[in-house]
Design goal:
The chain is 32% helix and 24% strand. It has 338 residues and is an alpha+beta fold. 45% of the residues are buried.
């Protein structure tokens, strides 16, 4: 099998086949759902929200990225991230005390910034790997009546995109291919801006999710990651068992993203998209939501709508020219490593 996520339809079948039921699990393993949700019992008015996510495409700022991509999954539940565990696997070659301490320092700074506690994990030097791998787990809490899921979209909802694409992918390209890109004529100033994309416009969506949940009744939220915006929208359709119509021409793509993706022939809509946030709301909630995001100076764009449809799918285009959108078999970013 080629590097990248396991085929979405294969995964769907495996999760159905091997899931173990537990009445305390409110949201279990399903395609598109960003985190599991557990009911700790009647004595608590909160659900526990639990997620797991690795960092494998890049090692620069791996500690920050590891905390944030897990935090994003918690945020899309409408939840507050609380506790983080990290498994750090260091390659035998080129690993030393300085490298280990840098990873821990990055994790500490990110946890400190977002008021999260590092509560454990595992660290080792691992044979057979070529680069540092971080695999994270995070736990958060959400009031039971405030829970949001990926599959909560309702017929008639608007589909909104917060910020643009592909934020994380743009930073990865700039960080991993800087020397080659300069040789190809890309300016150091542009590469510095692109490299900084993990911080500005930023790969975290906690701030945006809090604004959304505080301004409107959010029916569903999703954090598009591997496979980019295309797979993110498809996962929302599959999770909600709805048809989604989307206008890909309305998707904001940052200038630096277009340029760097163009160098390697990547489709920006299929590049890892952490930093973007997809959500659905009733049309009546659009105005207050737009006002709230305008005050925060965060871009927001209506890109589609949820329909009942004959099946869970995503359509794009207009009129008779509409066509069904299919999953990206593997993230476009992988092409830069070939």
């Amino acid at each position: 099998m080629k590097p990248g996520k396991v085929n979405i339809h294969l995964l769907q079948g495996l999760l159905k086949k091997y899931a173990i039921p537990d009445p305390r699990v409110i949201v279990g393993p399903r395609v598109g759902e960003d985190a599991a949700v557990i009911d700790p019992g009647k004595r608590s008015d909160c659900y526990w929200v639990v997620t797991a996510d690795p960092i494998t495409f890049t090692t620069d700022e791996i500690g920050y990225c590891g905390v944030v991509v897990n935090m994003n999954d918690i945020a899309t539940r409408g939840a507050i991230p609380r506790w983080f565990l990290a498994t750090l696997l260091f390659p035998e070659k080129d690993s030393d005390k300085r490298i280990v301490e840098r990873a821990f320092r990055q994790i500490h700074k990110a946890c400190q910034r977002f008021n999260i506690s590092l509560i454990g994990g595992h660290t080792e030097v691992t044979p057979g790997i070529e680069r540092l791998i971080l695999s994270g787990n995070m736990i958060g809490e959400v009031k039971k009546e405030k829970l949001v899921t990926t599959g909560g979209g309702r017929t008639g909802d608007l589909v909104l995109l917060i910020k643009g694409v592909c934020i994380e992918g743009t930073s990865i390209i700039a960080r991993e291919k800087r020397t080659e890109l300069i040789r190809r004529g890309i300016s150091p100033a542009l590469l510095q801006r692109a490299k900084n994309y993990i911080f500005d416009p930023g790969i975290e969506v906690l701030h945006a999710s809090r604004i959304a949940c505080g301004s409107a009744s959010v029916h569903s939220m999703h954090d598009p990651t591997e496979g980019g915006l295309i797979n993110g929208i498809l996962e929302m359709a599959m999770a909600s068992h709805k048809e989604i119509e989307v206008d890909l021409e309305k998707v904001p793509i940052y200038r630096e993203s277009r340029i760097l993706c163009g160098v390697y022939g990547l489709n920006p809509l299929g590049v890892i998209a952490s930093g973007a946030l997809l959500l659905t709301i009733s049309p009546s909630d659009l105005s207050p939501l737009e006002r709230a995001f305008k005050r925060a100076s965060i871009p927001i764009q209506v890109i589609g709508k949820v329909k009942k449809g004959p099946t869970a799918r995503v359509l794009t285009g207009e009129g008779k020219r509409k066509k069904e959108l299919h999953p990206v078999s593997r993230d476009e970013i992988l092409k830069i490593f070939e």
